[in-house]
User: What shape does this take?
Amino acid sequence: MQRLNQKLLIGMLALGLNGAVSAAEEPALVTFQALSLETAQALANATLEACRKAGFQIAVAVVDRSGVPQVVLRDRYAGAHTPDTATRKAWTAASFNTDTQAMADTTQAGKPQSGVREVTHALMIGGGVPVEVAGSLVGAVGVSGAPGGEQDDACARSGLAAIEDRLLF
Assistant: This one.
């Protein structure tokens, strides 16, 4: 019996050491890039200005890579629903790392991806665009209030283009 306990103990130690070696191969912490508040504000302001130039009163939301809002702006005549809608579009773009205009098309009823429309908080309407730097997601921008998803998307992309120099390394 004592010999069995010794073998069991040796086996457990060996497994524990193997687990420690495997864990040691993986870093304990990860690092990633994120939008600074100043860059998120610049993106929101540039997007709002692009929509104003097009004649639209909108709300714009900028979220971090996890979908947490950093900035939400609502122009004076934008509808009461637009801040929440813009935030949900930005959250969706960040969560799926895909623009919501494309998702509006690929998730229609009857298509294989239609089930993602059931994800809580997701909104498959054009106007949410991921923000990527050097191939990594750093946030997303969402727009609501223009007369359609295509125009919301265009405003978001114009805002991104206006701050593009800040995002280049």
